[in-house]
């Protein structure tokens, strides 16, 4: 059994999914994870599919050096309208969401009411390659893979029923007008 960084508050109503040593950039994966945190499962899947198709953008908030400015990023109120469409990271997180969805079906949870409660991206050990430079030199050519883990929780949508016996609140101004009308009559 693999230990997660955080345990679910209600394990019977939540599912987990994780990936190790994923060959996608840590920085873009972190931004994708932050973009879908708190979303419902279906909404997150649609959003990431739109990111792959470049219909929606991932706002870049922390790792934004050298990232271009795009009009789509204005919707997220990021500093400088910085955003990108990290296709590889989005597809990998999409696959993890699909895995979590199938885990929920096996567990017997309602898939449409799942919420991405917790998602974390960690750096994995770098993989080494080499690149050949001028004058016979060799430089390292490293990749930055990541570990991703997420917990999705089933939410209950409970709407409190309004009391019919309770009088409606009126502002002081409306109460004064009502008193003035009664006094004038």
Description:
The chain is built from four helices and seven strands. The protein has helices at residues 26-36, 41-52, 87-107, 172-184, and strands at 14-22, 58-59, 83-84, 114-123, 130-132, 138-140, 146-154. Strands 1-7-4 form a three-stranded antiparallel β-sheet. A hairpin with a 5-residue loop joins strand 5 (130-132) and strand 6 (138-140). Helix 2 (41-52) packs antiparallel against helix 3. The chain is elongated and about 100 Å long. The relative contact order is 0.21. The mean pLDDT is 92.
Mean pLDDT: 92
Oligomer: single chain
Largest sheet: 3 strands, antiparallel
Structural class: alpha+beta
Strand order of the largest sheet: 1-7-4
Shape: elongated
How many strand elements?
A: 7
* Intertermini distance: 79 Å
Topology:
Layout: E1 14-22, H1 26-36, H2 41-52, E2 58-59, E3 83-84, H3 87-107, E4 114-123, E5 130-132, E6 138-140, E7 146-154, H4 172-184
Give a summary of the structure in a few sentences.
With 185 residues, the protein is α+β, with helices and mostly antiparallel strands.
Give short descriptive properties of this protein.
185 residues; 3-stranded antiparallel sheet; two-stranded antiparallel sheet; 31% helix; 21% strand; elongated
